[in-house]
């Protein structure tokens, strides 16, 4: 994570305007792909998979909203989706074969999957490993990228919070890139991410289908009923959060009161996100490093329009970045 965050933040120049969504997508996809496959031989697969994913994400969303007949016609979006899936599938399959041949382990997720046994004590087959890898890529990249993009946008909209965060990062990091060991001291950064996930949960709408008659509060729900729920609406319900539309990272201070179970950006229960700690870690380290090294502003632009995709993504967040390396940082902030 630290290596990839370094690549991101050293790639910017003073006074540049960056398209935050694309930058965060690059960070999340490179980091997650390298967590899955670290071996040198997997580099072409990482490139092929990360290049195919945007078409795969668009395809999954379109498949979910198109009527069944249109999903099967050879329309250009369907063809692009199919081609992208085949390309990613071929790249991952080649990597699985090369890992099986060289024997590993490489200290990555693919090596772990190759050692994993199923409930019958059998090693996982290629199709199962492939499905696990694709699930992690699809579930992890866009969600984490979108969360970081909203966080940067909110820090531009609330410059007082950005300055407070800079006091924390100056103390903990100076201007260096954050590492795992810094996490316990990046308290405000974590609260900023949590509050961002409350206001803009990337997974904004989910369904559940009852497998038996169920009771929910006073309602009896028959078996085979599909229920829809939205973390976005629950997070903004004034019964659970005072001034719900206001960005206030301090509402997550431990001494403040919270209604249990009403913050659900990662879902809950048996199907809760398995990447929650990974995502929180990457987002906290990345946001802290960005704020430690760069001042962010977007000239008071209004909240960007929301793109209804698989995730609740902002449409184009353009931010001007000013380097803090040359400023006598600690003094200027503490005054
Ligand atoms: C800010 C980032 C993320 C958010 C907001 C998020 C959100 C969620 C939510 C709400 C669910 C539950 C879906 C449901 O109830 O149907 C979920 C499931 C899942 N997430 Fe995440 N996620 C994030 C990052 C990640 C990452 C980084 C990974 C892995 C690299 C990941 C892997 C998964 C997987 C595999 C599941 C399915 C778990 C299961 O069904 O057993 N997620 N995520």
From TrEMBL:
Q: Which superkingdom?
A: Bacteria
The protein here is known as Cytochrome P450
Write the record's keywords in alphabetical order, separated by commas: Heme, Iron, Metal-binding, Monooxygenase, Oxidoreductase
Instruction: Name the species this protein comes from.
Output: Streptomyces lincolnensis
By sequence similarity, the record places it as follows:
Belongs to the cytochrome P450 family.
What PANTHER family does the record tag this protein with?
BIFUNCTIONAL ALBAFLAVENONE MONOOXYGENASE_TERPENE SYNTHASE (PTHR24291:SF50), CYTOCHROME P450 FAMILY 4 (PTHR24291)
Quote the record's binding site residues for heme.
Answer: 273
What are the names of the required cofactors? heme
SUPFAM superfamilies attached to this UniProt entry: Cytochrome P450
Q: Which GO terms describe its molecular function?
A: heme binding; iron ion binding; monooxygenase activity; oxidoreductase activity, acting on paired donors, with incorporation or reduction of molecular oxygen
């Amino acid at each position: 994570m630290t290596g990839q965050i370094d690549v991101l933040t050293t790639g910017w120049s003073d006074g540049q305007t960056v398209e935050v969504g694309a930058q965060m997508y690059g960070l999340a996809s490179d980091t997650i792909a390298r967590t899955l496959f670290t071996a040198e031989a997997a580099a072409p697969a990482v490139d092929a998979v990360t290049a195919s994913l945007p078409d795969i994400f668009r395809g999954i969303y379109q498949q979910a909203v198109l009527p069944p007949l249109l999903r099967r016609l050879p329309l250009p979006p369907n063809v692009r989706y199919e081609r992208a899936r085949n390309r990613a599938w071929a790249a991952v399959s080649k990597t699985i074969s090369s890992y099986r041949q060289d024997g590993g382990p490489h200290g990555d997720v693919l090596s772990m999957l190759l050692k994993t046994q199923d409930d019958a004590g059998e090693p996982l087959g290629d199709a199962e490993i492939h499905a696990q890898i694709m699930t992690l890529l699809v579930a992890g990249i866009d969600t984490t990228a979108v969360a970081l993009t909203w966080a940067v946008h909110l820090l531009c909209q609330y410059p007082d919070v950005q300055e407070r965060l800079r006091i924390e990062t100056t103390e903990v990091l100076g201007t260096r890139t954050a590492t795992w060991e810094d996490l316990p001291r990046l308290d405000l950064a974590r609260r900023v991410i949590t509050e961002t996930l409350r206001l803009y949960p990337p997974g904004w709408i989910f369904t559940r289908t009852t497998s038996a008659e169920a009771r929910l509060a006073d309602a009896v729900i028959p078996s085979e009923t599909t229920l829809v729920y939205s973390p976005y609406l629950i997070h903004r319900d004034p019964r659970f959060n005072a001034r719900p539309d206001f960005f206030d990272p301090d509402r997550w201070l431990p001494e403040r009161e919270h209604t249990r179970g009403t913050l659900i950006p990662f879902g809950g229960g048996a199907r809760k996100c398995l990447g929650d700690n990974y995502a929180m870690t990457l987002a906290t380290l990345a946001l802290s490093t960005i704020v430690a090294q760069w001042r962010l502003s977007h000239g008071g632009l209004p909240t960007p329009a929301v793109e209804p995709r698989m995730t609740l993504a902002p449409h184009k967040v353009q931010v001007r970045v000013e380097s803090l390396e040359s400023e006598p940082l600690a003094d200027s902030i503490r005054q």
